[in-house]
Amino acid sequence: MERRNKEAVKVDPPDDQNKRDRIVSVRIGSSTNIKSFEYYWSQRRLIVEFQNGQKYQYIGPGMDEVLDMVRASSVGSYFYKRIKLTYSGIRIEGE
To answer: Which domain holds residue 34?
Structure first.
């Protein structure tokens, strides 16, 4: 698997409130489709924010899948093939 340019992805450390739950919060700098995502490992819950501002929640992806998405040469392609086609997404309104 190709490695991404380190400048294209920024991983934020979890804040104190979510320290035990959120494993990763990532802003994507080079994706034309995905703006950012957060992953809550204890719930296996992935929140994806798209460039158009819409947010969707996916229940079920494992930590390995999310870390592979961070490392993928194309976050959008990985998301589509490994997450969107496998897990049902629920739109999050009002965020």
So the answer is: 6-92
Domain count for the chain, please give it.
1
29 within a domain of the structure (yes/no): yes
- Per-residue pLDDT, 23: 67
68 near 81, Cβ under 8 Å?
A: no
16 part of a folded domain: yes
Cα–Cα separations (whole angstroms), residue 41 to 52, 53, 58, 83, 92:
26, 23, 12, 15, 19
Separation of alpha carbons 63 and 44, rounded Å: 8
Domain assignment present for 47: yes
pTM summary value: 0.75
Distance CA 31, CA 79 (A): 11
Q: Within a domain: residue 27?
A: yes
* φ/ψ (deg, to 5) at 52: -80, 5
Single-letter amino acid code for the residue at 27: R
Q: Collect the ranges in the chain with pLDDT lower than 70.
A: 1-23, 95
